[in-house]
Amino acid sequence: MEHPEPQPYSNPDKPAWPPVPVPGKPGEYIGQASAADDVEGAVADEPAEETEPDPEPTAGSSLLDELRRQIAKFVILPSEQALDAVTLWVAATHLQPAWQHAPRLAVVGPAKRCGKSRLLDVLTETVHEPMLTINTTPAAVFRSITEEPPTLLVDEADTIFGTPKQAEKNEEMRGLLNAGHQRNRYVTRVVGNDHTPHRFATFAMAAIAGIGDLPDTIMDRSVVIRMRRRAEGESVRPFRSRRDIPALHDLRDRIAAWAAPLVDEAADLEPMMPVEDRAADTWEPLAIVADLAAGTWPRRARTACEQMVSAEAAAEEDHPSGARILADIRRVFVAQREVDSLSTEELIHHLRQDPESPWAEWGRSGLSPRDLGSMLRQFGLKPGNVRMADGTQRKGYMRNKFLDPWRRYCPTVHPVDAAPTLPQG
């Protein structure tokens, strides 16, 4: 009995066995596929990933595209996602009565000439009712906020919050910017000759530009745009008021006309967000604007949200006064085989030993017990008497006191957290 030639195997090292007939199907053999099976099987074996098509664009989508081009004409943003975010933020200022939260736009950079003030120039001509707050007192600001709030524009914020002394002097402005992130947060002041108490609204969107990071409480309520100096070969169009403002005002008015009938619809929308908690509150107005505009904007808004929030979370981990100290202390306890407690001296010694941490060069002579205590105090952690292996007692920290802060501020266990990378004690 002759057998047909066996089909070749994809692996030439495996032996080619004679084909086995399929019972009741003359001429067909196990493992042998028909021509139709070859075509259908190729599709079945490698199913194409299905992506949901973008919704049909509305007139708002074209307006956002035009606004995006205008912003990019005068300013180089750090990424395409940042440019999308700024575009959506500007449009969101024209729907402020719809929002529960008023996202701040933190325009920060490491030095001068990064384009921060130029971006504020463009925002001034495109946002709803711009209110520049240069040399404006907090009292004047909250007296200017009504049910149809303006858009606050704060330039040179480093002169307001740059040093502890400046921040202390301008604590009322910081409180105003913090409170105004959420609707129905008021400040009470006495007015008139009879000193009658009066409530003033604080809710208003705000763009704040400055060198260096803003106070943490403001950054946490912001869409953060980290500007950079233009590199060699990067160029933008000079901003000329007489030439450029009329076109920007025309675009602003068309965006406002598109947004005006959508206030009630925007207020009722609860979009799916790729982030949670305060980040979701901050980015929700931008996502709603994108959903109303449709087209490619809903997808781009969520991509910008996810990537930019993740970038800020990573930056916060690297900030020594933030969750970084908690994450590094967790690494120390893991490296020391989860001991019940460590003396302050031991803990600081191991923190300084990590070559990728800032603690060896912290301050004048490295991280001190006082520095450590100050940073941990904001998380409700204080040193206490701990018993050492030799039976003596010293000032130190118990591991179980860190469990709740670890869970709240650095819940993700990275591979470095699971491996004893620090020297054993």
Description:
The chain has 3 domains: 1-34, no CATH class; 60-229 and 241-314, Rossmann fold (3-Layer(aba) Sandwich); 319-418, Arc Repressor Mutant, subunit A, CATH 1.10.10. α2 runs antiparallel to α10. The strands form 4 sheets. It has a 5-stranded parallel beta sheet. With 425 residues, it is of the alpha/beta class. β4, α5 (138-142) and β5 form a beta-alpha-beta unit. The chain has helices at residues 35-45, 59-74, 80-92, 116-124, 138-142, 158-161, 164-169, 171-179, 216-219, 241-259, 263-268, 277-293, 297-318, 320-335, 344-353, 369-377, 403-409, 415-418, and strands at residues 20-21, 29-30, 104-109, 130-132, 151-154, 186-191, 196-201, 206-211, 222-226, 341-343, 384-387, 393-398.
Structure characteristics:
single chain, 425 residues, alpha/beta, Rossmann fold, Arc Repressor Mutant, subunit A, 3 domains, five-stranded parallel beta sheet, three-stranded antiparallel beta sheet, 12% strand, disordered C terminus
Brief summary of the model shown:
The protein is α/β, with parallel strands linked by helices. The protein has helices at residues 35-45, 59-74, 80-92, 116-124, 138-142, 158-161, 164-169, 171-179, 216-219, 241-259, 263-268, 277-293, 297-318, 320-335, 344-353, 369-377, 403-409, 415-418; strands at residues 20-21, 29-30, 104-109, 130-132, 151-154, 186-191, 196-201, 206-211, 222-226, 341-343, 384-387, 393-398.
CATH class of the largest domain: Alpha Beta
Terminal Cα span: 77 Å
CATH-defined fold name of the largest domain: Rossmann fold
Q: Count the DSSP helices.
A: 18
**Mean of all residue-level pLDDT scores:** 82
Based on CA atoms alone, the radius of gyration comes out at 30 Å
